[in-house]
Amino acid sequence: MAKFPTFPTTYEERKSFSISDLRKWGYLVPGQGKNGTIKWSRGGNPIGSIGITAYLDLTAPYISLNYILNQEKKISYGVSLVRVTSNLGKGYVWYFRCPYTNKLCRKLYNVDGYFMHREAVRGYYEKQIQSKHYRHIEKTFGPVFQQEKLYEQLYAKHFRKFYNGKPTKRYLKIMAQLQAAGRVSEQDLINAMIR
């Protein structure tokens, strides 16, 4: 009898937000408070939202999360923020203090209705559960699937192609991937998918 497949929820599929997101949205301005809503969507369809309020007084900064779980249970709790001096000696770096593991982290994931550090529950990244066949296809034809993303990086506003008259390592890597994508024919892709 065949084994029933299990499809674990990956970290990429979970709702999450990071310190980088909060900085980009203007929540991490010291001495100020800001409230708003974080929304998630998949395929253009909304799949969830939470209310967030940031309190950034320098004595005990935290964010407050408010949302309704499964359209019935109101949830409201705070997540502490910690400000650590940068190892470069310039400025500082913000971290969340996970309410469950008490670890410092830069990203919180929704696990069973609460946002926490990824080590609070066992999980997988998509790369960890891919089959050998799919990994082979991605290794061989990955640049073809990522051409659009590679061109976006190449023509980004502040992308540096040369430094001191020499091409940068990042530029050379992107160019090598684009050349590899150009060598793959459509028939090669079809043959790989059939196997």
List the helices and strands and how they pair.
Layout: E1 16-18, H1 19-24, E2 33-42, E3 45-55, E4 62-69, E5 73-85, E6 92-97, E7 104-105, E8 107-111, E9 114-116, H2 132-145, H3 147-154, E10 162-163, E11 166-167, H4 169-182, H5 186-194
Antiparallel strand pairs: 1-8, 2-3, 3-4, 4-5, 5-6, 6-7, 8-9, 10-11
Helix pairs in contact: 2-4, 3-4
Mean pLDDT: 81
Pick out the low-confidence regions. none
Task: Please state roughly what percent of the residues sit in beta strands, choosing from under 5%, 5-15%, 15-25%, 25-35%, 35-45% or over 45%.
Answer: 25-35%
Structural class category = alpha+beta
Distance linking N and C termini: 25 Å
Q: Report the sheet with the most strands, covering strand number, pairing sense and barrel closure.
A: 6 strands, antiparallel
* SSE ordering: EHEEEEEEEEHHEEHH
Radius of gyration: 22 Å
Please state the overall shape, judged from the principal axes of the Cα atoms: globular
Whole-number count of domains? 2
User: Strands of the largest sheet, in order across it?
Assistant: 2-3-4-5-6-7
Number of E-state strands = 11
Output the number of helix runs: 5
What would you call the quaternary organization?
Answer: single chain
User: What level of helicity do the residues show?
Assistant: 25-40%
